[in-house]
C-alpha cells in the first residue's frame, strides 16, 4: 500500500497541472473570441466611439467588482465550482453578445461577461498558485503561456470562420463547444479546495502586495499600450501602411508567448529576481528602440523585445504572491489582479491623454521609466 502512494500522488499532481493548463487555455480562447465581436457590436447597434467606450466600460467594472468575491468563493467552496460556474456563465453570455442589439440587455450582458471573466481569472490564478506550491516546482510561466496560446488560437479561429461568411452566432457556438469539451476534461482534477478562509472579503493592498500589484499594473499597462497604440504609432510616426499596423502587436504577442512557454526553465535557471530585473531592462530597451530609431523595422524589433522582456514578469509576480505572508492569499490575489486589470483598462486612455497634451512619443516614453522601475524593484521581492 505504501509503495503505491507516491505513484498516486504523482498522478494526482499531473492531473492538477493538466487541468490548470486547460483552464488557462480556456480563458485565452474566451477573451480572444470577444475581441472580434466588438466591431460587430458597434455596427449592429450603431454606437459611436464614445458610446462603445461606455459599453465596454461595463466589462471592466464587472471584472473588478467580481474579483474580491472570487477569492472568497474559492476559499469557501474550492476552485473547482468557481471555475466551472464562471466558465459556464461565459459560455451562456458569449452567444448573446454575438447577436443582441437591444442596448439595455447588451449592457447587462457585457457586465455579466466582465464579472464572469474576472471570477474565472482569479480562480484559475489561485488554483495555479496552489498547484505550483504543492509541486515544489516552477510552473507559472507555462500556465500563463497556455493563456497566450488560447488567445492566438481563439483569434485565428474566429477570424477564419468570420472570413468564410459564417454568422457570428454560429462562430461563437463552435468555440463554446470546444470550451465545454475542454472544461469537461479539466473538471475532475480541478481543486475542490482553495486558499485559507481567514481574512476579510476585501482589503486595501499594502506592503509587498501593494508592490506586486503596482508591478502588475505596469506590465498590464504596457500590454494595453501595445494592443491599443502600437499600430497607431507605426502608421503615424513610422510611415507604415495602416493595414499592416497589426504587425506591431503580433511581434509583441509572439515573443511573449514563446517566452512564457519556455519561461519555467528560464526561471529555474536564473531565479525570479534575475528574471524580473533582466525582463524589465529588456522590455525598457525594446520600448526605447521602438521610439528612438526612425524606421518601422526597428519598431517591430523593439516590440518583440518588449514582449520577450514582459513575458515572465507576471508569472514570477504571482509566484511571489503565493509565498508572501503579509495578507491572506484569497484577498491578495484578487487585489493584485484587480490592479493589473486597472492598468490594461485605464492605462491606454491615460497614454492617449498625455499624447493629446504633448506627443505620442512622449507618452510612450513614460513606459521606459516604468519598466526600469520594475527591474529596480526586483531586489525588493523574495522570489526564487
From TrEMBL:
InterPro entries hit by this protein? MFS, MFS_trans_sf, MFS_Transporter
**Could you name the domain of life of the organism this protein comes from?**
Bacteria
Cellular compartments annotated: Membrane
Topological relation to the membrane, as annotated: Multi-pass membrane protein
Q: What keywords are assigned to this protein?
A: Membrane, Transmembrane, Transmembrane helix
Pfam families attached to this UniProt entry: MFS_1
Spans through the membrane? 22-41, 53-75, 82-102, 108-131, 143-161, 167-187, 208-227, 247-263, 275-293, 299-319, 331-351, 357-378
Query: Does the record bear Membrane in its keywords?
Result: yes
- Extract the signal peptide range: none
Q: What is this protein called?
A: MFS transporter
Q: From which source organism is this entry?
A: Pseudomonas aphyarum
Q: What is the lineage of its organism?
A: Bacteria, Pseudomonadati, Pseudomonadota, Gammaproteobacteria, Pseudomonadales
Amino acid at each position: 500500500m505504501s509503495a503505491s502512494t507516491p505513484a498516486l500522488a504523482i498522478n494526482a499532481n499531473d492531473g492538477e497541472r493538466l487541468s490548470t493548463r486547460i483552464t488557462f487555455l480556456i480563458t485565452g480562447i474566451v477573451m480572444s473570441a470577444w475581441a472580434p465581436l466588438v466591431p460587430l457590436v458597434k455596427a449592429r447597434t450603431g454606437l459611436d466611439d464614445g458610446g462603445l467606450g461606455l459599453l465596454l466600460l461595463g466589462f471592466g467594472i464587472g471584472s473588478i467588482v467580481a474579483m474580491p468575491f472570487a477569492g472568497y468563493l474559492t476559499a469557501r467552496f474550492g476552485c473547482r465550482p468557481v471555475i466551472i460556474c464562471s466558465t459556464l456563465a461565459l459560455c451562456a453570455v458569449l452567444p448573446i453578445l454575438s447577436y443582441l442589439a437591444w442596448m439595455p440587455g447588451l449592457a447587462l450582458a457585457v457586465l455579466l461577461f466582465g464579472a464572469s471573466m474576472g471570477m474565472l481569472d482569479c480562480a484559475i490564478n489561485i488554483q495555479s498558485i496552489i498547484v505550483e506550491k504543492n509541486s515544489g516546482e516552477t510552473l507559472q510561466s507555462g500556465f500563463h503561456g497556455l493563456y497566450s496560446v488560447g488567445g492566438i488560437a481563439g483569434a485565428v479561429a474566429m477570424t477564419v470562420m468570420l472570413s468564410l461568411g459564417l454568422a457570428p452566432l454560429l462562430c461563437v457556438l463552435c468555440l463554446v463547444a470546444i470550451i465545454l469539451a475542454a472544461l469537461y476534461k479539466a473538471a475532475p482534477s480541478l481543486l475542490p479546495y482553495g486558499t485559507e478562509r481567514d481574512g476579510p472579503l476585501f482589503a486595501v493592498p499594502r506592503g509587498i502586495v501593494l508592490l506586486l500589484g503596482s508591478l502588475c499594473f505596469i506590465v498590464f499597462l504596457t500590454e494595453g499600450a501595445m494592443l491599443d497604440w502600437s499600430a497607431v504609432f507605426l502608421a503615424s510616426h513610422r510611415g507604415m501602411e495602416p493595414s499592416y499596423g497589426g504587425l506591431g502587436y503580433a511581434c509583441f504577442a509572439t515573443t511573449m508567448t514563446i517566452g512564457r512557454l519556455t519561461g519555467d526553465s528560464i526561471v529555474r535557471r536564473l531565479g525570479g529576481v534575475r528574471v524580473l530585473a533582466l525582463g524589465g531592462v529588456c522590455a525598457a530597451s525594446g520600448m526605447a528602440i521602438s521610439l528612438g530609431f526612425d524606421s518601422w523595422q526597428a519598431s517591430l524589433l523593439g516590440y518583440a523585445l518588449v514582449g520577450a522582456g514582459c513575458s515572465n514578469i507576471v508569472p514570477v509576480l504571482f509566484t511571489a504572491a503565493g509565498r508572501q505572508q503579509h495578507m491572506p492569499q484569497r484577498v491578495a490575489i484578487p487585489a493584485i489582479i484587480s490592479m493589473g486589470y486597472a492598468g490594461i483598462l485605464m492605462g491606454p486612455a491615460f497614454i492617449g491623454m498625455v499624447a493629446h497634451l504633448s506627443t505620442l512619443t512622449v507618452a510612450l516614453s513614460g513606459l521606459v521609466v516604468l519598466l526600469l522601475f520594475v527591474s529596480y524593484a526586483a531586489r525588493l521581492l523574495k522570489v526564487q
